[in-house]
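Re: the pair you flagged

First of the two:
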Amino acid sequence: MNAQNNNRMEKIISLCRRRGFIFQSSEIYGGLNACYDYGPLGSELKRNIKDFWWRWMVRRRSDIVGLDAAILMAPRVWEASGHVAGFTDPLVDCKVCKHRFRADMITEPGKCPDCGGALTDVRQFNLMFKTFMGPVEDSASVVYLRPETAQGIYVNYQNVLDSTRLKIPFGIGQIGKAFRNEITTENFIFRTREFEQMEMQYFVKPGSDMQWFDYWKNDRQDYYQALGIRPAKLRFHEHDKKELAHYAAAAFDIEYEFPFGWKELEGIHNRTDFDLKRHQEYSGRDLSYFDEESRERYVPYIVEASAGVDRTLLCILADAYEEQQLEKDTRTVLHFHPTIAPYKVGIFPLVKKDGMPEKARMIEASLRSHFNVFYDESGAVGRRYRRQDEIGTPYCITVDTETLQNDTVTVRDRDSMAQERIKIDALLNYLYDKINI
């Protein structure tokens, strides 16, 4: 990462803490490495991102339904999926400074990147968090915090089919927590030990899988552009034979150009029939599907679209952040898409007298049941605009002297800083049109 991008990342992290987007977990106790808490603005932004994904992936379609599977699952699930035997990273330790690294990230073999000391031999480290269910801590009571949400979908595939009467092709979407005991973490919330996934598994007839794979590649690209991410910052990366997982017939990553480089934002995978066949084998349950149209029985193939909530949030912050050099000062602004902005509207009385605060409070009350709004009467109105720009509020309403005469207010656009005079009774429709783009 060059100095300019490093500085940009530091500014984003500083803004997150200062303005209540993201805090270090357990900060008053010195913090817990690679764990983060989402503050008032961060939790609102995170919820809006999940809602946007859910509307796009589940609500707008008749062929995809939702699921919320448990974090704790039968240990046999993780044996069938291959996580118990193969969900590992190569681990080395420095014999001098005792720092720990992933072996595949070492640039000079056998040499510590921090102090230059000698490294231990490589050993495999399982990334799953292990715990115990019940009062006795023995091998019979071992359970795992799930390292991914997809397996909860696969083991419920038959339940969903039976209860909804959906026909293939159809999908199951889920948003939920996952946990990975990463050896090394990096780049703020990009790679953490506790994270949240937004996943959709689409079940298709064998032979149609690559057609659906291409369909979902295009759909996911459209999704990020609808979310407001600049197309020039997005690209596809195809997995070559060395990268391709053993169960996959094809895989593409959607990558975003973060300040620390091009990194994976979402994975689209053709997982073939590997997952259902493994669970069929280990559970003894028949997970095949009888196709009434073709009069044949088969185990469906699966096309997966998997994205991280936290990683998406970091992408949105990085893409939205801008410093603008104005005539007298520097304006920091987050250009959030209005639909996902934590606050949609800031409401200000120009001064704290002449009935303006009362009028502004009335407008706040009328809009609060429709949008998340913020009332502010502290300081000069210009500084109030700057505070809202910095947290990404797309519109600010100011009550002034003219408001008291003709019931109009100024509505300021965050991105252009242009102001427009609007009648109070037209505000709701005006804002709905602007925010629900």
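Second of the two:
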Amino acid sequence: MLTAGGKLEQARRARDPRFDGRFFIGVRTTGVYCRPVCRVKMPRAENVTFFDSAAAASEAGYRPCLRCRPELAPGTPAWRGPSTTVTRALRLINNGALDDGSVVVLCERLGVTALHLDRSFTNHLGASPKTVAQTRCLQFAKKLIDETSLGMTDIALSSGYKSIRRFNKHFVQTYSRSPNSLRKTRPAAAKGIELKISFREPYDFQSLLEFYRVRAVPGVENVTVDNALSDNGLLDNAPKSYERSFVLDGKSGHLSVSKLDDQLVCVVQGGSTRSLMQIMSKVRSMFDVDAVPEEINSVLCEDRIMRKLVRKRPGLRLPGAFDEFEIAVRAIVGQQVSVKGATTVMGRIADQYGVQTEYGRVFPSAETLADLDPATLPMPLKRATAIKLLAVAVADGELEFDADEQVLYDQMIAIPGIGPWTAQYVCLRALSNPDSFLHGDLVIRKVAEKILGVSSEKELINTAQAWRPWRGYAGMHLWRASADPIVLK
């Protein structure tokens, strides 16, 4: 639990959007908890309590505000605290670890006792792992009620509940009313399921799209441009969207992500409704919507030169991964070749080994590539063999992308043909670690030498210590600067 007063009280009184999702306000006189941006009549300071998370407010007995809808707040970054155990546990919970399993099983995967995990969660989030998982499920269910035309049974199963009975019971316990009573009007059925995702400003959506555009796997991914606006000269940089096909829970589908005002809009066609929460978790990671620009930029701007890059792109975000295995293959393919060349090779692998669905081609699974003949891949044999060995390790369960970062890094470099750069790139994108820094990347080193005056990898590592724990963002700023002749002057 956070203490009242000071910066949080100022943020509450100002309804400061920069703090939306970073803390929640419990009002003792009403028993309701709200976002800092809630427009209800301002409660008196002596009647409020600050909480680290929505789960903490829920565990304390407060119910969600129906006006500001806490489930719409930008998320809390999993990397917010110094505990690697909490970080990994949150990542596993977001992937549904407690939807199907127990806290005991989760602790076994983490290698800690249930008591240690509970204490760690209480210290960092103010709530137990079980409450965090339950709040996640309930918030997603509330979102589906408000934004889709799905029936209540589909909503319950899509949100991680094992039965409609459990869903109804939890909902009534939290809101003191039934789920149906909150659906005043059922949204009109549309082509696909449309869900909105909040983020904190500033948000550089275009830079993310450009990153994905040049790396999009042909046939699997695509970044579209509104040609009508471009052709009419209405916009120099026309709105774009990211699209991809997928297979989850044995069902194929297609998704698109675009930006509308201060939200992202994700449209899902096909697929299984039970995969919706997993899809949204992946999209949130891909587009780094839970980042807190104020915290990141305040650290990076302490460096005089980095300050110049940050001010040019204050909303720069980290690219994540929809399919971690696909990204790992991409990292191997990208060794010592251009981005364009690697994209071409990825397209050939997808075309040769992927699966064509009614929604598009899907990148091959680890099980598929584990059986390939490395000689059939359009690349040097050593690299092709590394892909096969990686696929075998993932298919056999020996290498998991939800592992601790150091464990994943060590497992990656233990595979012949995979070096530090490749492993670091995978950690950056597959784990969304904001402190992963590609100090061996040739582009980053060249830009660093040009604008930072560091000529060796060791110097760059030492310089980057001042950017922790946001070295990943610093690396993205350096990457972007490589294509900016003004910055490099």
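Residues 31 and 61 are 7 Å apart (CA to CA).

-B.
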